[in-house]
Amino acid sequence: xxxxxxxxxxxxxxxxxxxxxxxxxxxxxxxxxxxxxxxxxxxxxxxxxxxxxxxxxxxxxxxxxxxxxxxxxxxxxxxxxxxxxxxxxxxxxxxxxxxxxxxxxxxxxxxxxxxxxxxxxxxxxxxxxxxxxxxxxxxxxxxxxxxxxxxxxxxxxxxxxxxxxxxxxxxxxxxxxxxxxxxxxxxxxxxxxxxxxxxxxxxxxxxxxxxxxxxxxxxxxxxxxxxxxxxxxxxxxxxxxxxxxxxxxxxxxxxxxxxxxxxxxxxxxxx
Length: 271
Ligand SMILES: NC(=O)c1ccc[n+]([C@@H]2O[C@H](COP(=O)([O-])OP(=O)(O)OC[C@H]3O[C@@H](n4cnc5c(N)ncnc54)[C@H](O)[C@@H]3O)[C@@H](O)[C@H]2O)c1
Fold this sequence. Notes:
Elements: E1 10-14, H1 22-32, E2 36-40, H2 43-46, H3 50-58, E3 61-62, H4 70-84, E4 88-93, H5 99-102, H6 112-135, E5 139-149, H7 163-185, E6 188-194, H8 200-203, H9 208-218, H10 226-237, E7 248-251, H11 262-266
Parallel strand pairs: 1-2, 1-4, 2-3, 4-5, 5-6, 6-7
Helix pairs in contact: 1-3, 1-10, 4-6, 6-7
This protein binds nicotinamide-adenine-dinucleotide.
């Protein structure tokens, strides 16, 4: 349903790979709420092509950028303002990748070149994005920057591998940079800690199918879907959450505050 919640607002959405991507759902919903935006992804993801369909559907332009390359980000931020006709109100960082996970390297036996690459893509890219937005003074006052994260930043999920460390770093960047963005520019910076979600990035994690069921049965409201996450992100981009900043916001059906649920207990009860 459209409340025109984002009417007149402009932004950049990183990370729409295919129709399962959280960023894809968010782009559709931002469009529905009257927001305009530029879509971006790494040039390699672009060659797979699906993003063009989303661009047509939402009347958006695509500007490729590898989020680990500051010069790509500079070009993106400059061009996005030209295309959209002014400064930005919202930015979604929806990027994650671990080479160790991809190549099946165990956490206790990392290839540190891969560790560094995953850290750069999944965490430092958020700092680089904000550095460019900050230096170019590209955000309007009361704008909103959101990155997506996962609870493995706080608690142990063994198969999440080095992505757990990357997410902890990402959340810390949100707070540290968020201080300066708030003080100097009146811009808020938050992370959304989302339920396990069946996307390309999600399914790369070993044992994902079992884990997603477990999380669903543990959560009083069940897992939050990619669509639910997109809805929550809209609220953070809207003017209704102007004083929310430096937060890591759990969007997980209640999972993060659970100890055990009756459904999960049942599996362990003796007859
Ligand atoms: N799926 C889950 O279970 C889950 C749970 C919590 C948080 N998240 C987070 O949500 C975000 C979005 O992931 P998703 O689940 O929608 O999966 P996805 O695979 O659809 O999206 C990940 C995106 O990162 C992009 N990317 C990779 N390297 C890049 C680079 N160098 N430059 C620019 N973009 C790059 C990919 O092209 C892709 O579009 C990620 O931060 C992920 O960690 C996912």
